[in-house]
Amino acid sequence: MSLTLTIPRLETGRLMLRGPQHDDFEPLCAFLLDRERSWGFGTERDRAKAWRWFACNIGHWALHGYGYFTMEWAKTGQPCGITGIWNPEGWPEPEIGWVVFDGFEGRGIAFEGAMRARRWAYEELGFTTLTSNIVPGNDRSVALAERLGAWFERDYDNVEMGAEQLYRHPSPADLGIGADNDGSPEAYA
Amino acid sequence: MTPHLADTPVLETERLTLRAFGPQDVEEGVTYLGTERTQYMFDPMNSRDAWNHMARLIGHWAIRGYGLFAICFKGTDRAIGDVGLLMPEGYHEPELGWCVWSVGHEGQGIAYEAALAVRAHAYRDHGWSTLVSYIDPDNTRSIALAKRLGCTLDADAALPDLPDWDGTLAYRHPAPEVA
User: Fold this and answer.
1) Is A16 left (phi over 0), alpha (psi -120 to 50) or beta?
2) CATH topology for B11-172?
3) Do A55 and B56 touch (CB under 8 A)?
4) Is B44 in the A-facing interface, judged by CB distances under 8 Å?
């Protein structure tokens, strides 16, 4: 028996989105323990908790068939952030999230990665809608959500994060993405 | 693309099949984690924490290449307990852990049979030379099982660097040549 997970490799101009690997833990851990950077995502209190999140994400892929990709800066192969679809038990609905690691801000990485992950979710997973949950005051994330075409829909209480604002992304139809009749999704935008 | 993340062996004993945790175990696992059966390890979990816990157990296999097995009676695929090798961040060495999920399956030697098989697997297939089991001092059933497995109290073992572990007992398993 072997544990295999279907995690695609998605390319953008400058990024490779791929499944989590061992070497991703240290940069992810540094992010999760840095309250200043991770407060809007969910700060972990120690390495053990950060490792649990790392393991949970891999299991999330196994249980749902989707999760957070590691974003790799194609030129150097360095992990530069994560983006993907998150929907653990208790979540209002699947959301698209993004995080950029220290030293990689200001390059439009989150936008480029989230655009690619969203297209994958619509084309390959057949999602018809997506959300992003944003902690009030996280202006950078709001700006990015709006740049992605998402709009504020409602306030709600997240089971992990407390008060959050739910942003609604444009649908596949809004973006000109669709699945053809034989059920195999394709883009004709 | 479908990356190959871990070899997950299947172990057979006289009565049991041990296989890695998978998506098929989530429902039973979440139910078990919500009960008092885990009282010596942690408080009962709500379904959200339990789901995350099950996901982590699957992730553990991918990260470490070993992990927790579901215990199933031969010929079935329904988990009635867990047994396996645990090494989350914070541990200093791998632990052999076990739990039978319902009172109805106690007293049949299931955990003993499963733990013996996993210990032999760890020594044979991973080439390990020692194993530890961490047990709450009030967990008399698990202490009795550890002793039956030939374990002795190891006062020098370094406990995991995790909160609320003070007072936990470390039982050292016999080495491969005597196990």
Assistant:
1) beta
2) Aminopeptidase (3.40.630)
3) yes
4) no
